[in-house]
Write a structure and sequence with these properties.
Chain A contains 4 helices and 5 strands; from the N terminus they run βααββααββ. By secondary structure, chain A is α+β, with helices and mostly antiparallel strands. By secondary structure, chain B is α/β, with parallel strands linked by helices. The chains are: A alpha+beta, B alpha/beta. The interface between A and B is medium-sized, with 27 and 23 residues. Bound molecules: adenosine-5'-triphosphate (ATP) and magnesium ion (MG).
Chain lengths: ~130, ~120
């Protein structure tokens, strides 16, 4: 979708860019008129998706933009990592293949209005997140 | 990033909003060393500047608390912003086994109770 609003792309190679990504997201959320609570929720979701890329995929990018049809934020998290073998399982609270709490992915989904995962084992993962201004 | 200061018998730590994962790890090591050096009994972790505390942040706060307890000190997290608290609930983050207080004064009071109870 071609959007006229702000668009930020953050390449994720290390944990430092996680902070950049969530700050950029929070700024755009604020511009869109999201409440402080929603801004924090969106920033937290970005933080989780970005960290998953750094931790589980070894790198990738997050793109944050505005939805064109109605006020809302669109986040796309893409990587060329190992992919997610069992998406249903990965979306369950408490499931982690690492030492994490296994709450990032299901948490990000709960925060969203629309959430979609495209993944191919051995090729990578793209996660599409949208939240609309209520 | 973060600042550690001695405040009487206590250590007072402020965590900045842009604290990264690696900084958290460094902070844990520094706090650990300072707690041992000063034989601190109480450590206050002020997170009021943090606009995001995600699953990793929660896990680090739990890890710091546990490590400090092993060193004989009690940690209290204070200053969680309302929006951050709400986001933590949405993410099902519970800050298990981590003591929390509203602000610095409350944290000092709580530490008095906690450390006295363990004498
Ligand atoms: N981008 C990704 N690439 C590959 N695997 C992923 C990706 N994102 C998530 N996963 C898989 O899904 C699992 C669940 O992710 P989730 O974020 O919920 O938990 P976690 O990252 O393990 O722990 P945390 O609670 O600290 O986020 C991960 O353990 C990992 O196996
Ligand atoms: Mg995660």
């Amino acid at each position: 979708m071609s959007d006229a609003g702000p668009r930020v792309r953050v390449e994720l190679t290390s944990d430092h860019e996680i902070v950049h990504a969530r700050k950029a997201g929070r700024e755009i959320a604020q511009q869109l008129g999201f409440s402080t609570t929603d801004q924090v929720l969106i920033a937290t979701a970005i933080s989780e998706l970005a960290r998953n890329i750094v931790l589980h995929a070894g790198g990738g990018a997050i793109e944050i933009s505005t939805v064109s049809s109605r006020p809302g934020i669109a986040i796309v998290a893409t990587d060329t990592g190992p992919g997610i073998r069992d998406v249903e399982l990965a979306l369950q609270d408490g499931y982690s293949t690492g030492i994490g709490l296994g709450l990032g992915l299901p948490g990000a989904r709960r925060i969203s209005d629309e959430f979609m995962i495209e993944t191919r084992v051995g090729h990578g993962t793209s996660i599409f997140f949208r939240k609309y201004v209520p | 990033m973060s600042v550690v200061a001695k405040h009487g018998d206590l250590l007072y730590v402020t965590l900045d909003d842009d604290i990264g994962d690696h900084d958290m790890q460094t902070l844990l090591e520094r706090l650990s060393a300072m707690t041992i050096r000063h034989k601190s009994r109480g450590v206050i972790l002020d997170v009021s500047a943090m606009e995001v505390i995600d699953s990793f942040g929660c896990r680090m706060l739990q890890t710091i608390t546990t490590v400090l307890r092993i060193h004989g000190a009690r940690a209290v997290v204070c200053g969680v912003r309302p929006a951050v608290a709400f986001a933590m609930v949405q993410l099902a983050l519970r800050l298990e086994d981590v003591e929390t207080a509203l602000d610095f004064e409350d944290a000092v009071q709580l530490l008095h109770v906690l450390t006295r109870a363990h004498v």
